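Re-run requested by the PI after the first attempt was lost when the workstation crashed. Everything re-entered from the original request form. Ligand of interest: zinc ion.
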Amino acid sequence: MLKTHLFLRILIPKKFFGEVVFLDKIKEVKAYQVLDSRGNPTLRVVVKTKKHSGYAFVPSGASKGLYEAAELRDGKKAYSGRGVEKAVDIIKKKISKKLKGMRVVNQEDVDLELKRMDSTENKSRLGANTILGVSLAVSRAAADYKKKELYEYIAELFGNKNKPVMPVPQANVLNGGEHAGNYLKVQEFLLLPTRAKSFADATRMVCETYHVLKRIIDDKYGVNATNVGDEGGFAPPLRTPEEALDLVSKAIARAGYKRKIRLGLDVAASSIYYEDEYDIGASFSAKGLMRYYERLLGKYDIKSIEDPFDQDDHEAWAEFMRTVAKQRKVQVVGDDLTVSSPHRVRMAVNNELCNAMILKPNQIGTLSEALKAARIAMEAGWEVIVSHRSGDTEDPFIADLAVGIGASQIKLGAPCRGERTSKYNRLLEIEADLKRRVYAGKKLRF
Ligand code: PGA
Ligand code: ZN
């Protein structure tokens, strides 16, 4: 083997030989314990080949689904147990050695090797955070090697040959639930600027409305109420969903965007489900909650509802889809329900539990599996909404992911706080550089 290798090296000009055989092989995988936007430790991973490299940061959720892949945390005194030094060690000592020599362009092979090394159902041995950091950094190194923008490389991996689509932002401007220190039970109130001309236009509409909302909150609740929650949205002392929806609707109208910006909710209902009852401010059974949603849909311009029921309350999801969603043409989004897992998405497609999914790579742990989940959803005619996490970083990976796979929407928080604006800013850059592209708002069913 070694002899043939040397022989070929002599025969084939070095430049040509080097490019094809050597330059995309992994030389080293580095890892660092750094911080996420909540001041918790997280990972930064760097994958190096001879001449190229790729990095990635790993985000972390607060309202996690029961079926998400598991994060590895140190559980020691430092950082209240949330350190990731073990993960850093695993990458430096085990993963780097194992992946050495593999080609960064073979994403699926790398991801399979990582899964094989972990060998658990939920990636708990190495940690989904550990695995994801490596998986994403490998894809960036491959894009670098191929001299492609990351979104172009992801499009190639995904087999997306369509004209690039700029996603509709879902901007979370009022924060509640586990993302804010208030009594609001619904986690997110989202602006969906569907009638914008472009992503840049959508960003302007979101920012203008966000600032009007700030003034309305200041006038009504005082300046202390304009502090922001984990995703950059305001977190005023509200209690009921109606109070929040009144505020946001007023801000949209005042900013001049009635019917141009539609509304979305992320109820994150798994976090408010207690023994068959949903506590959304008042207590409801699943049927009662369904009727409550129907009233909200009649009164407000809501077009999208994420996690309206608990992740295991499948009967409620299915009935909601058959009845309310059908009549009102509302987008029903699985997040904790589907957890970006090909297996769970397939189950939800087969049982018609929703018609859209959230795509968060850290819920499943590898880029290949996240892409597979998105493919199953798109083939079923669902919308795919790429999403940040409430604990996020300056890494704009999800912006490229959304454009690469042609997702119609992206959840990226309010246009405030660096870890949120990094995604807006990357999308603004991508859009400005693209000559031919469409804005997804035109294609949405609502
Ligand atoms: P998380 O919330 O990142 O805290 O899980 C986001 C969401 O539920 O969509
Ligand atoms: Zn959610």
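Saved to the shared folder this time. Residues 61-64, 266, 268, 335, 358, 387, 389-390 surround 2-phosphoglycolic acid (ligand 1) (CB under 6 Å).
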